[in-house]
Amino acid sequence: MDILRLLTTGAKFRGDRKFKHDHDVVDGKSSSSHAEISALSSDIKKELDFFHDRPSPVNISAKAKKDKASKKRKIEDDSGEGTHEAYLHDTHEQDHKVLRISAQDLRKINRIKVTGSDPPDPISSFSDLLSRYAVKPFLKQNLQKHNFSTPTPVQMQAIPILLEGRDLMTCAPTGTGKTLAFLVPLLQELMGHKKVGYRAVILSPTRELAKQVMNTASVNLTLKIHNEIKWLSEGRNFKICMLTKATASTQAHDPTARANYDIIVSTPLRLVHELKQGHIKLDSVRHFIFDEADKLFELSFLEQIDEILAACTCQKLQKAMFSATLPSEVERMAKTLMKDPIRVIIGTKDAATNTVEQSIVYTGTEEGKLTAIRQLISSGGIQPPVLIFVQSIDRAKALFTELVYDGINVDVIHGERTKAQRDAVIERFQSGEIWVLICSEILARGIDFKGVAKVINYDCPQTVQSYVHRIGRTGRAGRSGEAVTFVTKADSEHLRSIANVMKQSGCKVSNWMLKLPKPSKNTKKKLKKRPVTREIISTVPKVLQEARAHKKYI
Ligand SMILES: Nc1ncnc2c1ncn2[C@@H]1O[C@H](COP(=O)(O)OP(=O)(O)OP(=O)(O)O)[C@@H](O)[C@H]1O
Q: Which residues line ligand 1 (CB under 6 A)?
């Protein structure tokens, strides 16, 4: 028997939940409410509790239990090093218990692994920033105002490292707040410099080069960063140059405006273009952030990264890289650019976020996928908002045509749609007007859609990194999510590595999947160059397909 057939029994769709919750989410009644995060996280295990809404193990320690009346207490520091105050939150913010735990324990509880020379202790609360680093009060106030009460593990460790001026390489799961982890120290540091033009660069990758001149992902990534800078810097006048095709012709060129800007947020291609035109100078840049760093260190970007770094001539250039995946070869390469870097891994390297319930469905054939998705929908197993990933633009269009004919509230985003169309689709998806969004790899990274309930990998991702980033569009900021991956026989080469990711994040996986043979180096190379060839998505007879082709749906 084909072992892949066994996967069919692994199908697990929940039809018991109604749409009400998701309506509330997309209506904004409960989008990213921290009350909800709190409720959800009470169900999750301690190591998954990135957002600390669940009482900490130290909170329920025997010592803490003994002395309930006391607001402030001390826990002996067994390690004898790095003792500091830790705020462990009760459900009511004002009811803090101030405990003393070691840096070691704090790291252990939060699964923070640090290597490198003399790393600073992690912070345990945003208040630590005031007491230890005298950060400007506006940062703490803005965090509070926007309900960010406790740092996530990556923030606990990355913020002090950056505040101490060190270079940093970070790998932390998707949706765990890496953006704030670099923005908080960056804004603090910028407050201390003289305004002399661009002093910080935040680089985000474009999705694909050449053919897909489609910048939705990168534009939205840079937009995400831009938005976070905006609210975090409320009350202060930071000027951000978001380098896109549209803005490049205006703000970046104007020498008076340039002198006032503090931060450039850009993609490598755009920045190199502006450098070559002589429109931008980076000689005052002191801080360099590589967001989605592993993508930026792919071969296709290296030349541009070199050119950009060569333009940053300031002696004191701090570099930091962040990603949810960090392949070893990328890490090796990145290390050569850094000075005595500290390496921070949250949980396990290249792991999926633990807040996503992952499953695999063997569908046999391409046709089987359509049947599976229709079954999923008719059984009430899809709770919006849902993201469906496919392998190519053509497949995105074909699946859209199929699903729209089924009367599903669906739309599609790909490189052949205009920028205005793409922006409109994203806005409608975020507002809840569209329930199901079909997309190519383009939306796999970085995008912080609020409350995506489910990710469906209609086409199996071709690398572990792609899998981790795609499913990371759900289960963000401590919320729970689901991810289903459809596989056919053609995907058998990828199954083992996906099964490993699932196992690492605590999902049930059949042993035989983990025991599948490793693909050879040659096969891996081939797969990298050319993704699996798939049959056309369609259950419609050819005659009808042709008739449809005359109409314009997209
Ligand atoms: N300390 C915090 N408490 C609660 N929510 C937070 C905290 N920090 C960040 N968030 C929220 O978590 C969400 C995910 O953050 P962010 O987009 O920075 O994740 P990420 O780690 O960069 O993910 P990805 O790897 O997918 O890009 C955002 O909505 C952000 O506002």
A: 32, 51, 148, 150-152, 155, 172, 174-180, 324, 446, 448, 472, 476-477
